[in-house]
Write a structure and sequence with these properties.
Length: 552
């Protein structure tokens, strides 16, 4: 049976298990849109390609399967590059399909033409163009395999407009095969001996390719060995924060006591992550290339092992496969570091207890305490980038897998699109987006998407009238010389109502709880604007104190 290229793209997506995709429509892939009309794939129509790409990233982040996004050529594709960059740095499986100019116009700088193989090489694991409709099953199968194997990441496939209209006959598409790497028996034995010899071990979990069972099994392993476990930057959902083995977030603004323990450890076990700039505190926790600590590095991509840190034991395996091999290891009768683990967990509990007071009429500490007491353990929290996110990352205690969607790449504007995607994926669970005023308006138009699809997420917009993180650095390095960091904002509660959602404005701490309950009861997408004093730039230091420190 002959089919068009557009039909073959949709057939290939269905064969590979795709149930949903995000898009901003374009004339360059009308044939695919037409084929989607007759499919059961859930198409989420977005308002800007960057938001659409971030939604696909969130699906890849929460499912482990590639998130799918479709955009048009030129400005549509370049808008989507923001989401590509997030997926690349965060190791998230994603496939971006881009409608391209017709084949006979290539290399003429035709209308909206971009040579994506040159433009997007730094953003994607692989960039391909399908010139022949008969090769669609081949290219799409390869795209899924590349996106999910080794270190996951985004793939870009460009689709010439005329190719999508060609009719060809091809074999029925099949589901892709993920490439796996398993730890060897000798490597597990080596790890066991290193653990027995250690006095001050430390485990840091990170990366992707985890699943619910792997998270639970590693927690059991850590409990049997009484190992101190931290989670890498914005990977906090990988371990129950109230488990006695959890010792804290290894990321921006790390607890100094935890940083000291990592530096003084005699064995560090990195599982899944790269231990890049943010979790390593600017590459200071481990020496490069030869760490002072004995290093065991577990990562699914061999090219990452030894790239920055030379490990004493390198294990090429996905976290899930590595953890499966740990079930065979018998724990020692008594762990000599057990008391240290208990002390580190207590230090984490103290560090993650929010302050009661601060400058201004709104205190974020009591607000975080209320959220901890009044949200379920399966609530999904999303956020973008900014100092406001410290309140969530430091003071929310994650309990379960798949409850966090936040960019390790530090991309602003991520929280709201991710919340839309998460609520579409898990309609039965509460989804709360944390955003700053600057961060929210990067992709605030996706609130219209939430309204259109009746997705009752709650966005907590912390408004301090400035690009707070940049202002903090500005006052630290150039005190009193404010430049380009002040903002003029809309009435966010009124904006929510204008879109058809629910809006609240909180100007005093005690107003937050009833505002949140009203937002919940509305069963509409909601924005709760929290007006925060600009001085409350961090949980422990004011903006003025930061500036005065530099002045002295």
């Amino acid at each position: 049976m002959r089919k068009t290229g557009g039909q073959l793209i949709v057939d290939a997506l269905k064969a590979n298990g795709v149930k949903r995709l995000s898009c901003v429509p374009g004339e360059s892939f009308l044939a695919v849109l037409d084929a989607l009309h007759d499919s059961d794939i859930d198409v989420l129509v977005c308002r800007q390609e960057g938001g659409a790409a971030m939604m696909a990233d969130c699906w890849g982040r929460l499912t482990g399967e590639p998130g799918i996004c479709m955009v048009t050529r030129g400005p549509g594709a370049t808008n989507a590059s923001a989401g590509l960059h997030v997926a690349r740095q965060d190791s998230i499986p994603m496939i971006l399909f881009i409608g391209q100019v017709q084949r006979d116009a290539r290399e003429r700088e035709a209308f909206q033409e971009v040579e994506f193989r040159r433009a997007f090489t730094e953003f994607a694991k692989w960039v391909g163009e399908i010139d022949d409709a008969a090769r669609i099953p081949e290219f799409v199968t390869r795209a899924f395999s590349v996106a999910t194997s080794g270190r996951p990441g985004p793939v870009v496939l460009t689709l010439p407009e005329d190719m999508l209209r060609d009719e060809v006959e091809v074999p029925h598409p099949r589901h892709y095969t993920r490439v796996e790497a398993h730890p060897g028996r000798s490597q597990i034995d080596d790890l066991y001996l290193r653990l027995l010899a250690a006095e001050r071990p430390m485990v840091v979990l990170g990366g992707t390719r985890w699943d619910k069972d792997a998270v639970a099994d590693f927690q059991d392993f850590a409990e049997r060995f009484r190992l101190p476990v931290g989670c890498s930057f914005r990977r906090q959902m990988l371990f129950d924060h109230l488990h006695p083995c959890y010792v804290g977030d290894v990321g921006i603004g790390i607890n100094p006591a935890l940083a000291r323990e990592i530096r003084e450890a005699d064995l560090v076990i990195l599982v899944g992550g790269r231990f890049s700039e943010m979790p390593s505190s600017g590459y200071t926790l481990l020496d490069i290339p030869y760490p002072a600590q004995k290093l065991v590095h577990v990562h699914p991509d061999p090219s990452e092992l030894g790239r920055v840190y030379r490990p004493d034991l390198a294990i090429c395996a996905s976290p899930a496969d590595f953890v499966a091999a740990l079930t065979e290891i018998e724990a020692p009768a008594e762990a000599r570091w057990a008391e240290r683990t208990t002390r580190m967990h207590e230090a984490y509990l103290a560090w993650s207890t929010p302050p009661k007071t601060g400058p201004g009429m709104v205190q974020m500490g009591p607000i975080m305490e209320w959220l901890e007491e009044n949200t379920a353990s399966d609530t999904i929290f999303t956020n973008g980038a900014g100092n406001y996110s410290t309140w969530l990352h430091r003071f929310h205690r994650f309990r379960r897998f798949n409850t966090q969607a936040a960019p390790a790449s530090g991309s602003m504007g991520y929280g709201l699109p991710a919340a839309v995607a998460a609520k579409r994926l898990f309609p039965e669970r509460e989804v709360i987006c944390f955003a700053g005023d600057g961060c929210f308006l990067m992709h605030g138009q996706e609130f219209a998407t939430a309204v259109r699809y009746d997705l009752p997420l709650i966005a907590v917009v912390i408004n301090n009238g400035m690009y707070g993180t940049i202002r903090m650095h500005q006052e630290r390095d150039y005190p009193g010389r404010v430049s380009a960091t002040d903002l003029t904002n809309p009435d966010f509660a009124a904006l929510a109502r204008a879109y058809g959602g629910h809006g609240e404005r909180v100007e005093r701490t005690e107003e937050f709880a009833p505002a949140f309950e009203r937002a919940r009861a509305s069963r509409k997408p909601a924005i709760i604007e929290v007006t925060l004093d600009p001085e409350a730039i961090t949980p422990t230091r004011t903006l003025s104190e930061i500036a005065q420190t530099k002045s002295r």
